[in-house]
């Protein structure tokens, strides 16, 4: 087993010029903070990792594994043609909230609606990055261009604060074919913040997840069940 440690400052230096434009749309702070670039690492991982690295799983720290993570690698084999990233749906109505203006102007839209038929957005706690496919996808690389990011955020009246997750979500509204959607059991989010902040009536439609949980995600500091 070989472990390679990467210098955060070095990575940020490479990342910043690629993701600078999107930071103002998807960062919590106002403006663009150099250090915030690291929250967009997954978006441009294919540009900064050596070419011989073709696949990466990127995970948050607030996870608990109930199965061998090697099984998650098998999901790469299920990517449909054209897909570059494996990611699970967001399990709270956060994007129902964020897209409120677009939803009001487009009452028939699936944007922000709950599964199985809606587009609830994505959660980036567990990510499968097919770096080779990301490098080869003309569409994906076009979407990283500042003009394209601007175009999408304007179309959807979008201002987010969740970094890479916001980028993947807004791209997924426009180009779902770029994503292989992981089952909720691979990223069973536990945060219930939005249930108590105006969305109790629809919350369970987003939060519901059937099946044996493979990875628990204790997002927003939520305790993870003991074995």
TrEMBL record:
<dbReference type="InterPro" id="IPR029044">
    <property type="entry name" value="Nucleotide-diphossugar_trans"/>
</dbReference>
<keyword id="KW-0808">Transferase</keyword>
<dbReference type="InterPro" id="IPR042465">
    <property type="entry name" value="XXLT1"/>
</dbReference>
<dbReference type="GO" id="GO:0140560">
    <property type="term" value="F:xylosyl alpha-1,3-xylosyltransferase activity"/>
</dbReference>
<dbReference type="GO" id="GO:0016266">
    <property type="term" value="P:protein O-linked glycosylation via N-acetyl-galactosamine"/>
</dbReference>
<dbReference type="InterPro" id="IPR002495">
    <property type="entry name" value="Glyco_trans_8"/>
</dbReference>
<dbReference type="Pfam" id="PF01501">
    <property type="entry name" value="Glyco_transf_8"/>
</dbReference>
<protein>
    <submittedName>
        <fullName>XXLT1 xylosyltransferase</fullName>
    </submittedName>
</protein>
<dbReference type="GO" id="GO:0005789">
    <property type="term" value="C:endoplasmic reticulum membrane"/>
</dbReference>
């Amino acid at each position: 087993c070989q472990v390679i440690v990467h210098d955060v400052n070095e990575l940020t230096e490479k990342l910043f010029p690629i993701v600078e434009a999107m930071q103002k749309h998807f960062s919590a702070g106002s403006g663009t903070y150099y250090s915030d670039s690291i929250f967009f690492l997954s978006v441009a991982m294919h540009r900064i990792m050596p070419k011989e690295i073709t696949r990466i799983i990127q995970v948050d720290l607030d996870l608990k594994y109930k199965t061998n993570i090697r099984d998650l690698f098998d999901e790469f084999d299920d990517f449909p043609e054209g897909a570059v990233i494996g990611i699970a749906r967001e399990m709270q109505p956060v994007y129902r909230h964020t897209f409120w203006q677009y939803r009001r102007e487009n009452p028939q839209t699936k944007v922000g609606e709950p599964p199985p038929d809606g587009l609830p957005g994505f959660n980036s706690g567990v990510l499968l990055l097919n770096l080779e496919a990301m490098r080869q996808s003309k569409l994906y690389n076009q979407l990283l261009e500042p003009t394209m990011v601007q175009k999408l955020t304007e179309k959807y009246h979008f201002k987010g604060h969740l970094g890479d997750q916001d980028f993947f979500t807004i791209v997924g509204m426009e180009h779902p074919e770029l994503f292989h959607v992981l089952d909720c059991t691979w990223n069973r989010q536990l945060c219930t913040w939005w249930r108590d902040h105006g969305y109790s009536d629809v919350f369970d439609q987003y939060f519901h997840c059937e099946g044996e949980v493979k990875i628990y995600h204790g997002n927003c500091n939520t305790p993870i069940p003991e074995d």
